Amino acid sequence: MIDFVRKNSYDLKDLETIVSILRSPGGCPWDAEQDHKSLRRALLEESCEVIEAIDEESPEHLKEELGDVLLQVVFHADIEREEGRFDLNAVADGVSKKLIFRHPHVFGDVEVADSEEVLVNWDALKRQEKAQDTYTDTLTAVAKSLPALWRAEKVQKKAKKAGFDWPDASGAVDKLSEELGELKEAISQGTNMEEELGDLLFSVVNVSRFLKADPEEALNAATSKFISRFAKVEQMALSQGKDMAQMSLEELDKLWEQAKLT
Asked: What is the pTM of this model?
């Protein structure tokens, strides 16, 4: 039996202790086996669940999901503590110093007019902090692990700071049409199809940026709309005593058009 005192309320230090106990001899075999790579997906999934709780506007759900993300942070820090490289306090120290450095208008004597100027200063300080000497450095620094649509959007935003951007949405839309044409040609020739598809998707993100629309949210909304309409098509098919899989594409298309009207 481990030496652990139960409480009515626990704090961050208690969470550190619990994670350490779980990973120690006599603790949990599964927890003890985990490393950064085995927990990689869990961190991503828990972060996505936080976003879902935010979208639901549920404080209780948000509290729970933030706790799951916090557990991941503490877990990763404890793995490093065991290796003698750093601990949770070092993580807190690092991010605290970063916040102080990037907010000279709060912790120093720099004056800013508005939040837009704050962001300009933040970007300049970040480049200084990470020794990003060229605009290309800022592009390559964008995490490859980001969802592809967000990574494309972030790269485009950073390229814009170098003046590499269309003056308005019309240029991005024209480029979208151009890329669609190139994809059609690639399909007809049976070559470079994936490359041209990537170029088309990149152009779609460019258009979404000009529309000030989050490409991930736009695609998620379109997917949800597809599911909703698909469900209506299936219900209409069932009401006719038919199985969708046995119907012709022409029949399904007619039901789809009906579903769009409801």
From this structure: 0.77
